[in-house]
Amino acid sequence: MPDSVPGPVLSPVLEVTDLRVSVGDHLVAVHDVSFSIGRGESVGLVGESGSGKTLTCRSVLGLLPATGEVDHGRIVLGGTELTGATRRTWNEVRGTRLGAVFQDSASYLNPSLTVGHQLAEQLRVKRGLSRADAHRRAVELFTEVGLHDPEGVFHRYPHELSGGMQQRVLIAISVSCEPELLIADEATTALDVVIQAEILDLLGRLRETHGLALLLVTHDLAVVAETCERILVMYAGEIVESGTTEEVLARPRHPYTQALMGVATIGTWERRALEVIPGQPPSVGEDMPGCRFAPRCRFATSACTSGPVPLADLGGGRAARCARLDALEGALA
Ligand SMILES: Nc1ncnc2c1ncn2[C@@H]1O[C@H](COP(=O)(O)OP(=O)(O)O)[C@@H](O)[C@H]1O
Ligand code: SF4
Ligand SMILES: [Mg+2]
């Protein structure tokens, strides 16, 4: 029986159950991950670089790299089974019911077409709008995502836009078909802090106006603290803690979450990279007898490595994967 993160109160728009993803020569990079996202909910997926966040997202989007494979698990989007879906189904779902924005937005834009053409074409093909209506709607969307001179931007090529503007264009394209869920994977990482804050603000507003759910993936805990209602903490391919952002950050129950908080600074704290927790995560595919965080955990005892550590439901929508939950309660805040 897979252990699973307690779900949202609202009816789920996305249900991921027991998802296992391997890369290369059958090296498991995502270990039986289960979680769900409610309609209109904002969920942050956080963890150090290499923890399996992008592979999880790409599995949901049907966009795994050629060397990656879903070994088992289920992905259901608003009642539609995506597990083992055909390329045609994925193509229908992506850009209509599922939107995505990545860090390298430029590589998702066609360099030889104006950005307006690319958005209008999406509206024509996926929403059946006429040429004139698609143009009008594209300019509206460019306005909505905060692009100044939206009519002028319509006629520009991607290389004529800054990174922040390209990201806004990609967000406009992603929300143009009113998706149920928008996945933003490190969407603001490459941008400077001011633009990053503006884009996060924009995602929050779009969530409200378009009623979409948001899966925000980041290695920056401060971003989740500012943007998300619920948080999933991932370490070495596993979800190790989840709950409302407020509660998890106020009272972390997993030593890894606490370690992240010690280095990711929130609010007025200075922002730093997460990769300063001492030690290294296990390699992809590395088999470990118990807790995958044990070699780096200052609370580790022999109890932590004697067998698999399940994700324990702590009630109130919280869960944590630690063999010493009782002993450490109150010690981590
Ligand atoms: N195409 C790939 N081929 C081989 N290994 C990969 C590939 N994509 C990701 N990995 C490995 O899988 C692990 C998880 O990667 P990823 O999901 O990108 O992590 P994150 O997004 O959390 O930084 C990493 O160790 C990464 O090196
Ligand atoms: S199970 Fe043990 S090693 Fe793992 S996080 Fe808990 S205390 Fe640390
Ligand atoms: Mg990533």
TrEMBL record:
Record GO terms (molecular function): ATP binding
InterPro entries with a match to the protein in the record: AAA+_ATPase (IPR003593), ABC_Ni/Peptide_Import (IPR050388), ABC_transporter-like_ATP-bd (IPR003439), ABC_transporter-like_CS (IPR017871), Oligopep_ABC_C (IPR013563), P-loop_NTPase (IPR027417)
Pfam families: ABC_tran, oligo_HPY
Ranges of residues in domain ABC transporter: 14-261
Its membrane topology: Peripheral membrane protein
Protein keywords: ATP-binding, Cell membrane, Membrane, Nucleotide-binding, Transport
Subcellular location: Cell membrane
NCBIfam families, sorted: oligo_HPY
PANTHER family for this protein: DIPEPTIDE TRANSPORT ATP-BINDING PROTEIN DPPD (PTHR43297:SF2), OLIGOPEPTIDE TRANSPORT ATP-BINDING PROTEIN APPD (PTHR43297)
Assigned protein family: Belongs to the ABC transporter superfamily.
Name of the featured protein: ABC transporter ATP-binding protein
Origin species: Nocardioides potassii
